[in-house]
Amino acid sequence: MSEAHRVEQGESLYSIAKKHGFPNWRLIFDDPANTELKKKRPNPHVLQPGDIVQIPEVPKEPHLKVPLDGRTVITRTRQGFQPIRILLLGQDRLPRTNTEYTLKFQGGEVKGKTNGAGLVREEIPVDARELTLHVEDDRWVLRVGDLNPLTPDTNDQGVEGAKARLRNLGYFLADVNSDPNKEFKSALIKFQADQGLKKSGDLDDATRQALMARHGS
Fold first, then answer.
1. Helices 159-168 and 205-215: crossing angle, nearest 10°?
2. Phi, psi dihedral angles at 143 (to 5 degrees)
3. Fold assignment, 3-55
4. The whole model's pTM is what?
5. pLDDT at 63
6. What is the DSSP string of the chain?
7. Cross-strand bridge partners of residue 111
8. Which among 16, 27, 107, 206 has the fewest CB atoms less than 10 Å away?
């Protein structure tokens, strides 16, 4: 018998799995009871507050069966940790490559360099809700799990999710909320212009797709 879990802001499948005693989030997401959720949220790490995740019984042998072939790549994540990926851009919105950084969270920190695409790739504790990224004289405080979907089936038709992505990409500087205000429309027009899209200021399907592709999620 499955149990219904209503997603709250800041939760991810990693934290939901830990809360319910699962060693791997895929044991929940791939359960047949979550077929409709998978269709609705194809990116399992971008959930909308209010989404319902069906929690099955914890299997006696909680191991994933992965069919192997020449194209299969397996990435192992330490239990109790989740991967984090941050694209670091400069003022010109170009990737800051091979740049040293320090990523701090409750209970620890990690140091490294961005790769050739300007990406920070690390593992952080599942319970971490806030990160601080230090790069030279710059400092950003980041919330984990607060990115909402862009899809029009959300309560605000994806406005809050779009604002968050535009802000991360340097197009939007105001508060992230569900209000489709003039600052939001202005940011959309700037983004659309840079992407060669129709400068409508509307969050249409083409803009959603371009925004997800540019942001990476």
1. 40
2. -95, 135
3. Membrane-bound Lytic Murein Transglycosylase D; Chain A (3.10.350)
4. 0.76
5. 55
6. --EEEE--TT--HHHHHHHTT-S-THHHHTSGGGHHHHHH-SSTT-PPTT-EEEE-PPPSS--------TT-------TTEEEEEEE-B-TTS-B-TT-EEEEEETTEEEEEE--TTSEEEEEEETT--EEEEEETTEEEEEESS-PPP--TTSTTTTHHHHHHHHHHTTS--S--SS---HHHHHHHHHHHHHTT-----S--HHHHHHHHHHHT-
7. 102
8. 107
Domain positions in the chain are 3-55, 81-143, 159-215
Q: What is the pLDDT of residue 75?
A: 53
Q: Are 127 and 111 in contact (CB under 8 A)?
A: no
Question: How far is the CA of 25 from the CAs of 20, 45, 125, in angstroms?
Answer: 10, 10, 14
Q: pLDDT over 70 for what percent of the chain?
A: 91
180 touches 162 (CB < 8 A): no
